[in-house]
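Postdoc handover notes: sequence design on the structure in folder B. Input tokens:
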């Protein structure tokens, strides 16, 4: 899984972010439980995505860490110590998320689903069903391209957004 490092003024890792697509809040907790020396102290509540930004708390060698989804609808989860500061344990937590490979299966399934949508869209375009065929075909092809793009890049958008510093 791709992680996005957050560095302090001395270029030390104090927190990191991960994409929230494909893993979910409970999936984050499952990864954390697998880290040696970690104790999960708070898991997401029922409908946590609706009512809490900070949804997971855990300890690594006695240091408290939290997982948050800033603003409740961000595309990334923020993971780091509470209060935010450099700790050597942060690298161990980041490495655990960087080594998660379970999303590859989902990406392959998405790729195959995308190819199927494109193939059926092309086939449907050539059929003699009637006038709405063009719109349905284009919708199927577009959906297929979306799934293929996500499977290959891990991004849910086809066009890249420019980042302003």
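Designed sequence:
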């Amino acid at each position: 899984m791709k992680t996005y490092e957050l560095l302090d003024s001395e270029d030390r890792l104090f927190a990191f972010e991960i994409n929230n697509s494909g893993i979910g809040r409970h999936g984050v907790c499952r990864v954390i439980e697998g880290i040696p020396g970690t104790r999960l102290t708070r898991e997401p509540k029922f409908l946590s995505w609706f009512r809490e930004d900070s949804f997971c708390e855990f300890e690594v060698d006695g240091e408290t860490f939290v997982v948050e989804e800033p603003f409740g609808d961000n595309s990334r989860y923020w993971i780091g110590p509470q209060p935010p500061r450099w700790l050597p344990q942060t690298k161990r937590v980041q490495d655990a998320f960087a080594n998660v490979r379970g999303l590859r299966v989902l990406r392959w399934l998405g790729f195959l689903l995308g190819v199927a949508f494109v193939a059926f869209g092309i086939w449907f375009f050539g059929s003699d069903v009637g006038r709405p065929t063009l719109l349905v075909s284009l919708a199927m092809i577009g959906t297929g391209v979306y799934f293929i793009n996500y499977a290959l890049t891990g991004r849910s958008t086809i066009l890249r957004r420019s980042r302003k510093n």
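Context for whoever picks this up: The CA atoms of residues 127 and 133 lie 8 Å apart. Don't rerun without checking with the PI first.
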